[in-house]
Amino acid sequence: MPNSRTGVLGLLIWSLTLFSCAAPSANQNAESGKDGFKVAYNQQKFSQADVFGILAANKGTGIFLAEFDQCTFTSNIRFGPLAHVFQSFAASCIFRNCTFEGDLEADMTFFQGQISFGKCRFKKNVNFQNAVFAGPAGFRECTFDGDAMFQNTVFWKENNWMGSHFYGVGLFQAARFMEKAQFGNVVFHANADFSLTRLEEGIAMEYARSEGRVDFTDARSMGLMSFRSSVLKQVNMSQIRSYGPVRFGQAEVADSIVKKGARFLGDLPEWPAKN
User: Fold this and answer.
1) What local confidence, expressed as pLDDT, does residue 30 receive?
2) Is 14 exposed, middle or buried (0-12, 13-18, 19+ CB in 10 A)?
3) Residue 166 in contact with residue 145, Cβ under 8 Å?
4) Is the pLDDT of residue 50 over 60?
5) 5, 20, 82, 166: which is deepest, by most CB within 10 A?
6) Would the CA dihedral through 37, 160, 186, 221 be positive or negative?
């Protein structure tokens, strides 16, 4: 059985690509399908002991979808049993209106299915460094009280951060977005680092706000970079290579847009009036 360092979200998990689940309780529903079991939890609290009890009770039951509504996770959570070891996670997980009171750890994890967080609150740090999302990834209208760490993360399909608030640092250095990065209406209360990021279809950061620096140093964008109607403190585009249009129409940048060594190889950029 995993020790206390393993973290919590073995959470009905694990055996790398097999998942486990307890028998349905008053706040849990389960149904079977051709791919395994779908389980749903509502208004429950999970601690590390709860998670390991679920594992022990139903070892080897395959889960293809787990849904969590208004649940609270009271300890640190880890997707998978091992820290800092590349591993695969087969099931899809959907979290709605959940609260994570400890750290959420998922570094070096290959997510095969959908991973979605909607209107969730992360009270401490979130770590998805070196992770791969093969399916859709969503962090829509979430609140990140701590740092959000997505360095070297790969998003193969749609990703959605719209309406989220980042109170800690947003770290996306060297991340790769294969579809358009959707950051519309986000608020960065601290710095956001997109340096060395590769944006295969560009980025939509419209109606966004930042109280710190948004850094795209040495990033590469193949599609439209749109910052329309955003209110940003400072934007660093040093050494960027943009092969698609750059649009700042009706945006406000309080300090400046740093463009040292930048190359805009698509249409002529559209800058805010001040810049």
Assistant:
1) 47
2) buried
3) no
4) no
5) 166
6) positive
Amino acid letter at 20? Answer: S
Q: Is residue 95 within 8 Å of residue 68, measured between CB atoms? A: yes
pTM (predicted TM-score): 0.83
In this structure, the strands spanning 72-73 and 63-69 are: unpaired
Give dist(CA 94, CA 269) in Å, integer.
38
Tell me the helix, strand and coil percentages in the chain, rounded to 5.
5, 40, 55
Provide the 10 A C-beta neighbour count for residue 69.
16
Region 107-134: mean pLDDT is 94
pLDDT over threshold 70, residue 100: yes
Query: Rounded CA gap, 262 and 273, in Å?
Result: 19
At 81-96, the pLDDT tens digits run 556 667 787 778 899 9
CA distance 113 to 91: 6
Give the burial class of 229: count Cβ atoms within 10 A of its Cβ; 0-12 exposed, 13-18 middle, 19 or more buried.
middle
Q: Average pLDDT, stretch 110-121?
A: 94
Amino acid found at 238? S
